[in-house]
UniProtKB/TrEMBL annotation:
GO terms for cellular component: peroxisome. It comes from Senna tora. Residues 314-492 form the 3-hydroxyacyl-CoA dehydrogenase NAD binding domain. The keyword Ubl conjugation does not apply. It catalyses: a (3E)-enoyl-CoA = a 4-saturated (2E)-enoyl-CoA; a (3S)-3-hydroxyacyl-CoA = a (2E)-enoyl-CoA + H2O; a (3Z)-enoyl-CoA = a 4-saturated (2E)-enoyl-CoA; a 4-saturated-(3S)-3-hydroxyacyl-CoA = a (3E)-enoyl-CoA + H2O. InterPro entries: 3-OHacyl-CoA_DH_CS, 3-OHacyl-CoA_DH_NAD-bd, 3HC_DH_C, 6-PGluconate_DH-like_C_sf, ClpP/crotonase-like_dom_sf, Enoyl-CoA_hyd/isom_CS, Enoyl-CoA_hydra/iso, NAD(P)-bd_dom_sf. This is Glyoxysomal fatty acid beta-oxidation multifunctional protein MFP-a. GO terms for biological process: fatty acid beta-oxidation. The keyword Oxidoreductase applies. It comes from the Eukaryota. Keywords: Fatty acid metabolism, Isomerase, Lipid metabolism, Lyase, Multifunctional enzyme, NAD, Oxidoreductase, Peroxisome. One of its GO terms (molecular function) is enoyl-CoA hydratase activity.
Length: 725
């Protein structure tokens, strides 16, 4: 986890009298305590040495620093590492050693200067960067705030509004923009970087350039009254965007303290707030998500074999519908040449136009230049037959969910594609063994399950069968990373990991409603929990046609735990298919704004009489906490089955699948992490109780029962559990 080396800095003093201190801690030169200690020691030495006139700080191998060593937070949180004295880094090292030094220093920034990395750079008396360097303070994404003085220095360098924006959104800026903002003083090419920084440091010494301590800069800070208005606006916006999060508000308070009471008071308040936030559940959850996201591409038995991904130069996609065109967009955006195949001119035109529209929307939003659009779009070629498939390295089939059609396609692919080509299907439900049944290429058949819209949603489920070769998985993991997706490797079953977890989510909601709970109360409670929308609003968005089709798959495959309701089919009979028909569980206006429908109760009553469900008066007044548990504990139960069956490799993969595939709030750490925060015993007892009142749907699975019996976390690896039994 995180950086493995201890980390250090090295100092070299040149004939020009400039000491270059280089941060070395691969892979991102993170600031471990060892690095920070070594930085302090080298600084002190440079200040003492008579042959040193000025200092340049830089990072090894083209990366300044990715910030404080995030793996150390876990150790601070669980007490395995002693928390340093308050202010030791931000005040003692960064402020009183670096910034207050009587010799000038310049940061030479290439690659990354993030979090603590940028905070070190801001304490130098000037900064030189390359145009592609990324500079930012992304700490809020980890549930903490910039804790090495960033809350005080960034607003003073770039102005209050921009500083707040950069910190609150966690978004970095590139070198050129950083220069126009005043965050860096000059932008030069990587080979000029060190020499320019050396000269700059000497120029400061000779007073040819200003010697600036960022902490005391105030030319960009508005008068107090105006500043207070900016803070007011920032608070309102933050509360609207992230109502469940406190740490962004704490961060605004800290920045304000520095403006109102002076930067030194701001630094102390920052240090105090930082110590509190590091111990918060939100920070623990977000740090878990950070490492889990990086951990999805570590697959035992696959990525530990030393296999190198093969180069994929050309990709073909079958089907230009919503999924196919989205996948094509994702690929060409990462510079893969793509052939899009359809069955006739009309469908092909429609598919190509969808890709075009996806790109044009970027141009309209200012995220892509017209020139880049032309270049990207030119990577897409249409085809009506398989002739151009003879030199493709990867094919992704994205046609409708029809078994015999897919089987025929894979027979054709085997015939036309070269023998090394990866044969992938984007199916979300059909067994891959069935799809490849009529071929002899089982070892290169794999699932590449994207989520709609495929060019935007970050998750990619890579589905392997027992025959899929590890090389194919290694190749797809690499492509997934290149197209900026988080790939999760899962086993082959109905619904894979994400849809298996989604199914009980909707089912629980329908069961509750048939037993007397209110549709709109449920959606409200679930949104308040932090999901982008409630289950009913989501079914409206997905469409009832899809909901019924996937429901059928689950009824066939998992009949014992499917709650059979006629509610959606009844609505569908009345041509209410969700948002597209402007009527589903909600009614929709021209602007897609949803409002409750009083008529809905008639459908619910009818569905209730058909299923024989009885109204439980308790459910009509269900507290928010109970709604959340009754909806999500069945999801946890299914996630346990997915883990038990070996469909997911590890619990953390399900956390990422839930966050990126279902929209589960990352600050709750993902489904299994959240479940463990409540305890397996508690979840088991609740499910057991509900299964007595409402049936098999809630019955806890054997995995959950076994862990609850021993009080073992649901996410503990099997080997660990065995050793405790
Ligand atoms: C007090 C201070 O204010 C507090 C802080 O500074 S908190 C830290 C602030 N910094 C950050 O949040 C940056 C976090 N890192 C990132 O965003 C990205 O890793 C990056 C942009 C630096 C690099 O991205 P990319 O090239 O895609 O590589 P990525 O796979 O993410 O990371 C490479 C490895 O470095 C590790 N890593 C990255 N940043 C790290 C950090 N700050 N500390 C420890 N390990 C880190 C990753 O865990 C990964 O390890 P692995 O190979 O064992 O899985």
């Amino acid at each position: 986890m995180g950086s493995k080396a201890k980390g250090r800095t090295v100092m070299e003093v040149g004939a020009d009298g400039v000491a270059v201190i280089t941060i070395i801690n691969p892979p991102v030169n993170s600031l471990s305590f060892d690095v920070l200690n070594s930085l302090k020691e080298n600084y002190e030495q440079a200040l003492q040495r008579d042959d040193v006139k000025a200092i340049v700080v830089t990072g090894a191998k083209g990366k300044f620093s990715g910030g404080f060593d995030i793996s150390a937070f876990g150790k601070i949180q669980d007490g395995t590492v002693e928390r340093p004295k308050r202010g030791w880094v931000s005040i003692e090292i960064i402020t009183d050693t670096l910034e207050a030094a009587r010799k000038p220093s310049v940061a030479a920034i290439d690659g990354l200067a993030l979090g603590g990395g940028l905070e070190v750079a801001m304490a130098c008396h000037a900064r030189i960067s390359t145009p592609t360097a990324q500079l930012g303070l992304p700490e809020l994404q980890l549930g903490i705030l910039p804790g090495f003085g960033g809350t005080q220095r960034l607003p003073r360098l770039v102005g209050l509004s921009k500083g707040l924006e950069m910190i609150l959104t966690s978004k970095p800026v590139k070198g050129d923009e950083a220069c126009s903002l005043g965050l860096v003083d000059a932008v030069v090419s990587p080979n000029e970087l060190l020499n320019t920084a050396r000269q700059w440091a000497l120029d400061i010494l000779e007073r040819r350039r200003p010697w600036i301590a960022s902490l005391y800069k105030n030319d960009k800070i508005e008068p107090l009254g105006e500043a207070r208005e900016i803070f007011k606006f920032a608070r309102a916006q933050t509360q609207r965007r992230a109502p469940n999060l406190v740490h962004p508000l704490v961060c605004i308070d800290v920045i304000e303290e520095g403006i109102v009471s002076g930067p030194r008071a701001g630094l102390w308040k920052e240090a105090e707030a930082f110590d509190g936030l590091v111990q918060s559940d939100i920070s623990k959850s977000l740090i878990h998500i950070f490492f889990s996201q990086r951990g999805t591409s570590k697959v035992p038995g696959v990525t530990d074999r030393g296999m190198v991904p093969r180069q994929v130069k050309k990709v073909a996609i079958l089907g230009g519908g919503l999924m196919g065109s989205g996948i094509a967009t994702a690929l060409i955006l990462s510079n893969y040449p793509v052939i899009l195949k359809e069955v006739n001119e009309k469908y092909l035109d429609a598919g190509v136009n969808r890709v075009k529209a996806n790109l044009q929307s970027r141009v309209r939003k200012g995220n892509m230049t017209q020139e880049k659009f032309e270049k990207t779009f030119s990577l897409l070629k249409g085809a009506l037959d398989y002739e151009s498939f003879r030199d493709v390295d990867l094919v992704i089939e994205a046609v409708i969910e029809n078994v015999s059609l897919k089987q025929q396609i894979f027979v054709d692919l085997e015939k036309y594609c070269p023998p090394h080509c990866i044969l992938a299907s984007n199916t979300s439900t059909i067994d891959l063994n069935l799809i490849g049944e009529k071929t002899r290429s089982q070892d290169r058949i794999v699932g590449a399950h994207f989520f709609s819209p495929a060019h935007i949603m970050p998750l990619l489920e890579i589905v392997r069968t027992k025959q899929t070769s590890p090389q194919i998985i290694v190749d797809l993991l690499d492509i997934g990373k290149k197209i900026k997706k988080t790939p999760v490797v899962v086993g082959n079953c109905t619904g894979f990991a994400v849809n298996r977890m989604f199914f009980p989510y909707t089912q629980a909601a329908i069961l509750l409603v048939e037993h007397g709970a209110d549709v709109y109360q449920i959606d409200k409670a679930i949104s308040k929990f932090g999901m982008p929308m409630g289950p009913f609003r989501l079914v409206d968005l997905v469409g009832f046609g899809v909901a019924v089709a996937t429901g059928m798959q689950f009824i066939q495959n998992f009949p014992e735990r499917t709650y059979k309701s006629m509610l959606i089919p009844l609505l569908l009979e009345e041509k209410r298919a969700g948002e597209t028909t402007r009527k589903g569980f909600y009614l929709y206006d021209d602007k897609r704004k949803a409002r409750p429908d009083p008529e809905l109760k008639n459908f619910i009553e009818k569905a209730r009489s058909m299923s024989g469900a009885t109204v439980d008066p308790k459910l009509a007044k269900l507290p928010v906490k109970d709604i959340i548990e009754m909806i999500f504990f069945p999801v946890v139960n299914e996630a346990c089955r997915v883990l038990d069956e070996g469909i997911a490799v590890k619990a953390a993969d399900l956390d990422i699948s839930a966050v990126m595939g279902m929209g589960f709030p990352p600050y709750r750490g993902g489904i299994m992490f959240w479940a463990d925060s409540l305890g397996s015993k508690y979840i088991y007892s609740r499910l057991e109780e509900w299964s007595k009142s409402y049936g098999e749907f809630f019955k806890p699975c054997t995995y959950l029962a076994a862990r609850a019996a021993k009080g073992i976390p649901l996410s503990a690896p099997v080997e660990q559990v065995k050793s405790r039994l």
